[in-house]
Design brief:
This protein is of the alpha/beta class. It is built from 16 helices and 24 strands. The protein folds into 2 domains: 267 residues, Ribonuclease Z/Hydroxyacylglutathione hydrolase-like (Metallo-beta-lactamase, Chain A, 4-Layer Sandwich); 174 residues, 3-Layer(aba) Sandwich (Rossmann fold), CATH 3.40.50.10890. β3 and β4 form a beta hairpin.
Length: 459
């Protein structure tokens, strides 16, 4: 492999989770991201596939952002011997202080419900990893600022804004007179909250995500839907319940509500953030005003987050008190798909009441409680008890933190003037990857690859 870079795709090949790519020279072995598979059980069981490499032989890991589908494998790697450096932007490092220990607790809890067959088939002796493994991981993370090239062994690495969530980055690696640009997860073309992505430099090889490679975001008036929901709870003196992901989506919905109140589209309504993780993530956002759109700071959004007009609830006792608050008010709580967390308690206590409104603001995966409710289930099971679904249900579809098909093509076109040798389309379902590949008609000499699991390339 002398004077070659070897790149092997070890995750997210045909999936939108589980990102992990091995990049190595004769002297250095790196991972770009190390994510867990998430979703239906047949997808999550890919987390039990034996690692192809002894983690102690990996020198370093470069993370693009904090989401668990890009970072959740880190505690397992540490558990199995990884002791190298983990590089991330400052925002990603700080979010991982929140997300990784929580992921460990979830693994411990889920292990209690594994069947004997699953434990036997995968030869498990305990959880995939524990909270302690996650805590042991945090000390290995080193923060690297954006737009600052830094050398690491055979490589030089640089992070650029990706516009996806706080800390999200594109990553450029250079070694042996070759360059590889990893898009990470790219934000939408017109972000509502986060600073937009930067344009990349020319690169010899490009790896691009394809989550929305086969579709466009819906165009809808989300302020109208929110206005109608708020007017409904004001009229009925009831509650608007919003399941939301703790990182990124919660902060976005808070900004939209703030802006609507500021512009007098809706009156000021009590807002409760009932999620310890969302509270800590929101406090982390406050430390990074430069990663937000400048207009948001000028409007006073950060002042709003620190005011008494928004109540961030961490204590369980205070959370339970919300059950007796009749309204009007807005509860934003995790998880976003209603498959765990405090949102379950709010749904258990309020689904039966016709006066309330439930508003989904993110994708609801197959098999989740959120999907069942959205598809019109008249009764659902929560805490092993059947609960009637009588409240009003609606959904906002335009809050995605990912670039859609046109946004991805716009990104890829930025490499047209100096065409890369190869474009790798990863991190998407096969239909999305193949559709996106079929739309890339503007390159004359670039080879387009759709990697499979463990596909290996010599650059």
């Amino acid at each position: 492999m002398k004077d070659k870079i070897r790149m092997q795709f070890l995750g997210a090949t045909g999936y939108v989770t589980g990102s992990r790519i091995l990049v190595e020279t004769d002297h250095t072995r790196l991972y770009v991201d190390a994510g867990l598979y998430q979703g239906p059980s047949y997808v999550e069981e890919r987390n039990f596939i034996p690692l192809e490499t002894d983690p102690s032989r990996i020198h370093a890991i470069f993370l693009t952002h904090a989401h668990i589908d890009h970072t959740g494998l880190l505690p397992l790697l540490v558990k199995k011997g990884f002791r190298g450096e983990i590089f991330a932007t400052p925002g990603t490092r700080d979010l991982l202080q929140i997300l990784l220990p929580d992921a460990g607790r979830i693994q411990e809890e889920e292990y209690k419900f594994y069947s004997k067959k699953k434990i036997r088939d995968y030869e498990l002796t305990g959880p995939l990893f524990t909270e302690e493994d996650a805590l042991n991981t945090l000390s290995l993370i080193q923060a690297v600022p954006f737009n600052t090239p830094f050398p690491y062994r055979d490589f030089t690495a640089t992070y650029y804004w990706a516009g996806h969530i706080l800390g999200a980055a594109q990553l450029r690696l250079e070694a042996l007179n070759r360059s590889i640009h990893f898009s990470g997860d790219l934000g939408p073309r017109e972000p509502i909250l986060h600073r937009p992505r930067e344009n990349p430099l020319p690169a010899d090889y490009v790896v691009v995500e394809s989550t929305y490679g086969n579709r466009m975001h819906e165009e809808e008036d989300y302020t109208k839907k929110l206005e109608m929901a708020v007017q409904t709870i004001l009229r009925r003196k009831s509650m608007l319940i919003i399941p939301s992901f703790a990182v990124g989506r919660t902060q976005l919905i808070l900004y939209v509500l703030f802006k609507m109140m500021k512009d007098k589209i809706i009156p000021e309504v009590p807002v409760f953030i009932d999620s310890p993780m969302a509270t800590r993530a929101t406090q982390t956002y406050l430390a990074y005003p430069s990663e937000m759109l400048a207009s948001i700071i000028k409007e006073g959004f950060f002042d709003y987050l620190q005011s008494r007009r928004i109540q961030m609830i961490e204590d369980v006792v205070d959370s339970k008190r919300l059950n007796y608050f009749s309204g009007p008010g807005i509860i934003v709580s995790a998880s976003g798909m209603a498959n765990g967390g405090r949102i379950l308690h709010h749904l258990y206590n309020r689904l039966w009441d016709r006066r309330n409104v439930l508003l989904f603001i993110g994708y609801q995966a197959e098999g989740t409680l959120g999907r069942l409710i959205l598809e019109g289930a008249s009764r659902v099971k929560i805490f092993n008890r059947e609960v009637p679904v009588r409240l009003e249900v609606d959904k906002i579809n335009s809050f995605s933190a990912h670039a859609d098909q046109e946004g991805l093509l716009e990104f890829i076109r930025l490499f047209q003037e100096n065409e890369p040798k190869t474009l790798f389309i990863n991190h998407g379902e096969d239909e999305a990857r193949e559709t996106l590949a079929s739309k890339v008609l503007f390159f004359k000499n670039t080879r387009i690859e759709i990697p499979r699991f463990e596909s290996t390339y010599y650059l």
